[in-house]
Request: fold
Amino acid sequence: MAKAQAKKQAEPQKTSFFRGFVNYFKDLGTALSKGNMGVLISTIFMGAGYLFNRQIIHGLLVFVVEIAFILMMIMFGGPALSKFGTLGTVQREQIFDPLTMQSTVNDYDNSFMILLTSVAVIFAIFCFILFWISNIKNLYRIQLEKERGLKPKSFLGDLRDMVGSKFHLTLLSLPVLGIILMNILPILILIAIAFTNYDQNHMPPDALFTWVGFANFAKLFTGGITSNFGYAFRKILGWTFLWAVLATFTTFIGGVLLARLINSRLVVAPKLWRTLFIVSIAVPQFVTLLLVRNFFADTGIVNSICSSWGITAFLQKIGLVSSSISYIPFLTSPGWAKFMIVMINIWVGVPYQMLISTGVLMNIPTDQIEAAKIDGANSFQIFMHITMPYILFIQGPALITDFVKNINNFNVIYLLTQDVYVTTDQALANAHGKEVDLLVTWLFRLTNEYYDYKMASVIGIIVFVICAAFTIISFTKMMSGGREEVYQ
Reply:
């Protein structure tokens, strides 16, 4: 019943979104077809309509925006867009003049600056079109108000609205601007680079790069004799998903069980134990991971203890450690390294989950637990049928966030394996990857060590699509509701 209601609620939302999109342009058509002379003139001279309605300040501000846009297109936008199709044709060269005995540099093209400027200009054009549409529709609204005998708001009236009824728009303006500059534009540039051959052989300003279409995507998804990126992508993608699942649910379950144990009446001094785990969180993670990496190194203290206690010899007998080495390859063998990464992440991540779960456990409805006890349910049944469902219901959004975060969990993988793990798979090595790499660490290595920006951009797009799709689908299903009344 709840699912059916949620589906009925979702369908009108989708319909209303489509209807709003259609009405947006329908209203523009109405304004252009029924607008007066001031509206029509404003299609070219954007501030003229406000001057026509004696709103001088409005008109001048809109004129300033239009003039600034035109100047930007003349000075930066036009020259950049004219070269956007080729990303530059003039190579950088140094010319030695024997008369002056000096070297001069020609007027060369910088492919990256052309790409960067062009993407910013295209986005600015898109924003200006939206501003133009909003301006036309606003002038038509003023026309209708005057026809009804109403007096349009003055400039000071609009300012009062921005700190009054529309104050939420004022508060959101800076965050939206930050999202545009720090998120949207970099993503657009990332997408554009994925369709170029920008790498260490085409590095501006000394060299040019150009468009290659979907060649990089084909290289990643198909592979071939001359490229191992397809093989590396499939292998690293599989480990990334496995890692995200293990890292999310092991720490979650461990945190819940630890919180349950500490809150148990059988545990002495629960506040002391809880404080000790909280103190472990205070140590910066990169310090902890670097220390643990040294502990589990081939010549580290853990290997010394295992060797002296006979653990290494025992593992050699049962076949978990090769007889050709005298240590346990905790971080240098593919299987051992992946196992240790998961174990160390449990140790690092469980205290966080313990704190969250403690707060949730303290707010479980006691009436349901008492009713279960009266019905004869034991502690395990209460935990499985009341406690865990309630924790999953409350922590569901956090689990989704943790899963996405673990897909991009750079610190644990990189800090534990960098300069320690050496890949034994030649096909992976040819693609600059390792068995323990996640997509994000592979991306980092491609850019930071091998300057293969084109393939790194393709991987970045894939990571973004995976995280966005998983988040949208999961939150859509979770927010559909249907269980809130159970816990009220």
